[in-house]
Amino acid sequence: MTNQNWMPPNPHWENHWQNPRYRVISIEEAMMIALQQVPGQVVKAELEYDHGSVIYEIEIRTRDGQKYEVKVDANSGKVLNVKLD
Predict the structure, then answer these.
(1) Which of 39, 43, 62, 70 has the highest count of CB atoms within 10 angstroms of its CB?
(2) Which candidate, 28, 79, 1, places its Cα nearest to that of 69?
(3) Higher-scoring residue by pLDDT: 49, 6
(4) SS3 category, 27
(5) Residue 48: exposure state from Cβ atoms within 10 A (0-12, 13-18, ≥19)
(6) Global pTM?
C-alpha cells in the first residue's frame, strides 16, 4: 500500500526561520517566562524574526489594565525586552 498524498520535503521550509528546528523553547514556555516578568494574562503570543534572531513576542494585560510586550529569545529563553505598550 502506498501513500498517494506523500509529498517530498519542501526545501524552502527546511531553511525557513519558522521551522521548529530553529528554536529550542516552545511558545508555552515563552509565555511562562514572560509571565514571570509581568504577572497578568497573555492576550497575544507570536513567533517573530527580529534583527537576525527568532523571538517570541508576548503581550500581557495586567490586573490594572496595562498592556506590556515581552520579547523572549526562542533559543535561550532569555527575556530581551519588556515595555509598556
Answers:
(1) 70
(2) 79
(3) 49
(4) helix
(5) middle
(6) 0.80
